[in-house]
Amino acid sequence: MSGDESKKANTRWVVMTGLLWVVATVLGELAVAAIEWHPFGASREARITDDAFDLLMVLSVPVISFVLVMGGVALVRGRGGVIDEDGPPVRSHRLFIGGWVVLTSALAVLVIITPGFSGLDELRAEPVPDLVIDVHAERWNWVYTYPESGRETQGELVLPVDQRIMFRISSTDVIHSFWIPAFRIKQDAVPGQITTTMVTPEALGEFDNADELRVQCAELCGVGHARMWTGVRVVTEAEFEEWLAGAGG
Ligand SMILES: [Cu+2]
Q: Which CATH number does 131-244 carry?
């Protein structure tokens, strides 16, 4: 093959690889859009967290497509025969390499800033809560106290919808972890410390209809660890006031 012909053949491979990359990326993005990835979510924090995951998923599709397509093309193009000498030297394309470094670095920094920092800021925003609930962990039980009314419960965590709630979390014995999957919040309960986390439930619901609406211990704490959970029930503000006063369940 003359130099010109091999150059043409090379160009064909490059163009075909590029086209395959575009096709694989489009198919991948369609799959990402079509699949329901997230479990049931019922809070403002769940929305923020899920949105961040969605963005990362969209950004990662071109990368995984590139790796797979390059691998596939290399397999096909390099099949048959043993190559026992070096190929021609590869001239670097300064513009391409420079552009690649700048583009990917800028993207990475952008993702760190938003949704990274901006998302964290949103999760911790509005530091003045509408309601404070004390959460106490002990092997193998959760105890919830509503300081304003003095009401204490164990079997179920009852929360009002659309209120910014702060949990003050403590532990008697070992490290536990206060996790509500439907809210996408998780915070360690550490003996001798008070840790906090905030949540704003956005949907009414209860454990019986969605088992993600539960407080589950997420730190192995002994034989009762797996059973260290209670249901969560999100009710309207009026129902909550009634429940708090002791009239409801
Ligand atoms: Cu535990």
A: 2.60.40.420
